[in-house]
Amino acid sequence: MVALVRAMQTGGWATPVLVLANDPDAGGLSKARDMGVPTAAVDHRDFKGDRAAFEAALTDALEAVRPDILCLAGFMRVLTADFVQRWNGRILNIHPSLLPKYKGLHTHARALEAGDTLHGCTVHEVTPALDDGPILGQAVLEIGSKDTPDTLAARVLPLEHMLYHRVLKRFVSGDKSLLSLRDVNFD
Questions:
Q1: In terms of pTM, does the model score above 0.70?
Q2: Domain residues of the chain, as ranges?
Q3: pLDDT of 182 strictly over 80
Q4: Which of these is catalytic: 95, 108, 124, 161?
Q5: Of 56, 52, 68, 54, nearest to 18 (Cα)?
Q6: What is the C-alpha separation between 5 and 77, in angstroms, rounded?
Q7: CATH class entry, domain 2-183
Q8: Contact yes or no for 31/1 (Cβ under 8 A)
Q9: Other C-beta atoms within 10 Å of 7: how many?
Q10: 106-163: pLDDT as tens digits
Q11: What is the CB neighbour count within 10 angstroms for residue 41?
Q12: Is 95 part of the annotated catalytic residue set?
C-alpha cells in the first residue's frame, strides 16, 4: 500500500482517495494518514457470519469517496461474487506466486515443495474466482537452493512493491497488456 500511494503521489498519474482496512489496528492506516491519505476501517470481526453486511459496509465506505479503481494490498478476505461484480473490471490484486500456479495461501512453501526453480508475483484483475482474473503483470526470480518459505517471501516482497504500481499506472491509462519482468527496469 505504501509503495502504491508513494508512486501515485510522486508520479501524479493517480490520486489515492482512501485506504480501507478490515482491521482497525492495521499498521497501514497510520502510514496512510501520515502520507495525507484518508483512511477507514470496517472490522470484519463485527460481521461474523454475515459477509453480505460486511461487504455492504465496505461498499458504503468506498462509495463515499467514489474510487475509480480498487487496489487490494494485504487485504486477506475473500470477496463474494456480488461485491466483485459491483466493482467489475476495477479491482486489482497482487498475489505472491506466478499465477495460475499456487492460488490461495502458502504460495512460497508450495513452490518449494513442488521443486520449482522460478517464483515471483502476479498483479491481476479480481474476478469472483479466487486469484483467477486476467493477469496484468508478473515479476520472476530464481529460487535459490537455500531458500525457505520465509526467505522466498522476503525476496518476492520487493518485486511486489516494484511491479504493482507499474501495472496500476498502465491500468489507469487503459493499458491491460501483460507487463513482465523483462519489460520493467527494477533499478
A1: yes
A2: 2-183
A3: no
A4: 95
A5: 68
A6: 21
A7: alpha beta
A8: yes
A9: 20
A10: 999 999 999 999 999 999 999 999 999 999 999 999 999 999 999 999 999 999 999 9
A11: 16
A12: yes
